[in-house]
Amino acid sequence: ALICGEDEISYQELNSKANRIAHFLTNAGIGANNIVGIYIDRSIDMIVGFLGILKAGSAYLPLDSNYPQKSLQYMFENSGSEVVLTHK
Fold this sequence. Notes:
Layout: E1 2-4, E2 7-9, H1 11-27, E3 35-39, H2 44-55, E4 59-62, H3 69-79, E5 83-86
Parallel strand pairs: 3-4, 3-5
Antiparallel strand pairs: 1-2
């Protein structure tokens, strides 16, 4: 389904991982009418995160690590987001 550099993922793996994120978010009370920040560098994990957020019925707010800290803070605070999805 996806290839990023030397990493690749099948459709089945992509769907399974996105479903896990969606279930995590919905179990945490995140769903429709919520905005979830996503702070992950461009990778397969970022796409998995986008899909998981969308499957939970939420909208995503991409937060690029290359942005200045003040810009990221402004975006997050003014988006109404209560959650940020990132790596462990």
